[in-house]
Amino acid sequence: MALNHDKHVLVEKPMAMNAKEAEAIVALVKEKNLFFMEGMWTRFFPAIRFVCQQIDDGVIGDVHNVHSAFGVAFKADNDRIWNKELGGGGLLDIGIYVLATATMVFGIEPEKVTTAGKLNDEGVDVYNSITLEYSGQRFATVEYSTLAKMSETVKITGSKGWITIQEPAHASREVSVVTFTEDGKRIEKTSLFQHPNPSDHHSGFQYEAQAVMDAIHSKQIERSEYSHAESVGIIKIMDKVRQGLGLMYTADR
């Protein structure tokens, strides 16, 4: 509706229920030449920008593995989580975060998607362990749960060491980098990043808001940190995950 009335849009994730809907939105964005972004605020935190730069600079060598987990013990009366007709379940709410850590490092085209999850009596997903296999013997293993809190960290492992994004990884301000010298000596460095309001990680929304404002002022229709292609690519992966779980929404029919 907003796009049809020529309004720029920053939309809460997920941008759509499935890839068909997502592709239709992106097509309209391009037709209207308007800014549009799915709200993956994590990408704009200084800690995450630092991680991407470390990987690009080859600090940990060739990356072979990503592991990410996110769990929240949602209350029983949270209709948004438990109502299937509202897109309930963990995948679209918090699973998208852990999948985005994989695509941030390895891209949106895994060769194989394997899922081992559980649906509850209402038919929504409450736990899942997903493995994404990429070319070149690269793997991402991601987990999420709506039943229990999990240690929300991300570990990115390469040929020369690893990077750990400390919890809460979706709004982190602490990153540890471990590397090894040629003679096997371990070197560990921890970098700390402050949020605009140090006592409230939600103040980190300011980073995303500034990026959107800058894009609109410069007449861009997307941000490279979280492009239209990546949004659609992740939803395509989630469609495959749901297929593996046997989870179908009304929008799929």
TrEMBL record:
Keywords: Oxidoreductase. One of its GO terms (molecular function) is nucleotide binding. The keyword Acetylation does not apply. InterPro entries: Gfo/Idh/MocA-like_OxRdtase_N, Gfo/Idh/MocA_domain, GFO_IDH_MocA-like_dom. It catalyses: D-xylose + NADP(+) = D-xylono-1,5-lactone + NADPH + H(+). It is an enzyme of class 1 (oxidoreductase). Residues 51-163 form the GFO/IDH/MocA-like oxidoreductase domain. Residues 2-39 form the Gfo/Idh/MocA-like oxidoreductase N-terminal domain. Belongs to the Gfo/Idh/MocA family. This is D-xylose 1-dehydrogenase (NADP(+), D-xylono-1,5-lactone-forming). The lineage of its organism: Eukaryota, Sar, Stramenopiles, Oomycota, Peronosporomycetes.
